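Subject: sequence -> structure tokens, single chain

Hey, anyone have a minute? Need the predicted structure for the following. Not urgent.
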Amino acid sequence: MAFGIDLVYTLGWMVLPVLALGTAAILLQALYNRYFHTLSTIPGPFWGSITQFYLVRVIASVPMLGLELHKKHGMTLSTMSSLLAISPLTKTADSLCFKAL
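Reply:
Had a minute. Here:
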């Protein structure tokens, strides 16, 4: 019985550094997305700028949330750290489209 308790105790101490490293990696990625990513200067929702999980909320309520976000942040906004939402009412959308040769 003592062997089982020692094994659980040892595995517990092995899991703690893995959890700490995982948490540190998530926090560093969030800081990078928020402040150092190339699209960080484009306005958008806070949670969308630090995590990819915000996309689930955006997809679930695209029509209503999209209109609210465009009213709040302007015609061009960053819904995630690597995703731009451009209102079709602007000429910016035309300038970002490439024509096929």
